[in-house]
Design a protein that fits this description.
Blueprint (H helix, E strand, L loop, with lengths): L8 H9 L4 H51 L21 E2 L5 E13 L7 H11 L5 H9 L5 E7 L1 H10 L4 E10 L7 H4 L1 E7 L4 E7 H5 L1 H4 L9 E2 L4 H17 L4 E8 L5 E7 L30 E2 L5 H10 L8 E3 L4 E3 L2 E3 L8 E3 H7 L2 H11 L1 H10 L26 H8 L5 E2 L1 H12 L24 H17 L13 E10 L5 E14 L6 E8 L17 H15 L20
Parallel strand pairs: 1-7
Antiparallel strand pairs: 1-2, 2-3, 2-4, 5-6, 8-9, 8-18, 10-15, 11-14, 12-13, 16-17, 17-18
Helix pairs in contact: 3-4, 3-5, 9-17, 10-12, 10-16, 11-16, 12-14
Length: 593
Amino acid sequence: MTRTPLRPLARVIAARQSGQNPDAIERENLRMRHEEQRDKLRFRAEGRLFVLGICFFCAFVVIGARMGHLAASVPAEPTSSGVAELISASRADIVDRQGRVLATNLSTHSLYAQPPLMVEKERAAEELGKIFPDLDVDKLKRQFTGKRKFVWVKKKISPEQMQAVHDIGEPGLLFGPREMRLYPNGKLAAHILGGASFGREGVHSAEVVGVAGVEKQFDELLRDPARAGRPLELTLDLTVQAVTEEVLYGGMKLMNAKGASAVLMDAHSGEIIAMASLPDFDPNNRPRPLTSGDQSDSPLFNRSVQGVYELGSTFKIFAVAQAMELGLVNPETMINTKGPLTWGRHRIRDFHNYGNELSVTKVIVKSSNIGTARIAMDIGTKRQQAFLESLGFFEPTPVEMVEAPTGKPLLPPKWSEISTMTISYGHGLSASPLHLATAYASLLNGGTRVYPTLLKQDVKKAGPRVVSRRTSERARAMLRKVVTEGTASFGEVEGYAVGGKTGTADKPKPRGGYYKDKVIATFATVFPAHDPKYVLVVSLDEPVELTGPEPRRTAGWTAVPVTAEMIRRVAPLLGLRPSVEPGAEAAIVKASN
């Protein structure tokens, strides 16, 4: 850039020669330089303003386009990008075989406090104590007036409680939305469902996780978003379950029992239609586990699955069925029942003296310990073990519950010949009522093994064969006679051909030996006996019937009438119509044409 001098020498000399003032030249050049600089600055400023105007124009165009796009799009709720977004609170429903809801979700709120935002902290604590009587007001006051910036007050509250907290008018008491697990039927099927609780928790959401039963067994499945909220369908029938629990509770009270259990199973598929354990609990308000004492005294204890007991004479049909399958006996074979049967220092006796011999059928009908023990001796230990193992008595039941592995049968540490004899009539081996129901279904459904399940089966698959169809039919005929002629006469339900076996076992003491006045009374049934559809096992813990002159504890007086009432009420709900048994028409005589 060429810079023009303010006093050019040539012009200054020329001005002096002509008599002009040279300073005027300097002033003129200075003026022109200022004007040139001014024009340059104005041009630069105008350029900047032009660029800024273009930027503003572009911004307005972008904003206008975005606003137009939002106005034309479908409205949607904004989502948070914080940590709470990682907590999944959704959980699929659980329904029965008819689609009726057993467990679902309910939208509710949590209540928390931010003490720095609170105005009247002590008053707020006192008002909260009036709304929630279970709160410790003094503790709340210490938390509100201390250095804490966040305090959980209640993890879930009702709409009425929420409104009451609103009415306190305290700005530091805040609410967070969340879902809670709801069991609309209360205690119904409590041990099967188990219950749920909160896992990871945030102010705006909480993770619902299963803590027991099928809720915990299928926890990942129920929380899987890929299922798109499809419910988990169980084999239970809600109506049948309700009737089962109602009758079982009434029977437990009537028979003065400490506890009770019932398992109703499809004899061909192993589907559990109803399963109950008493005492029970409400999964909406699940109690805490016992920290001391016998866990079986807790209402959380599932007697049907976790409880393992000596199930007494209900086992006798297994020994007889195996002997018939091996060709050792038939229903008319005579068995020596002269007692007592001696083995070393052990004496095996019958409840009554049945004479010197009984047929195999009568051994079951009369429930002879001696007769069954002699049959078991002919079978032998190894074959007995193999047969009971094929029926599932050596392992926990594979039912879909987290508690199932804890219900492992108790086997003798040394399976001697005396063990073979006593196990044949239900002493020396402890199993759960669900084990017994599964074994009865496998033996009596035609002889094919079933596996207990709580998941509804679309296709029924036949398991491996455990006995022949002929043996299964003979076993059912014997059990039918137990009801019509034997120890379970109170079990007859007209029109449903009930067959079953009673079992009364003395309860073992914790430190060895047996109680003389405490028993486990069990009645295992199949109905109809000529066309098996369902197996039902009812067990009472320490029952005693007091209407007679002497206390009566045997299953025939306690478990049998309870089971009969249960069948009488659930059979119509299962779609079974009362019918005449095959063979009854032989008694009809044609009088005339």
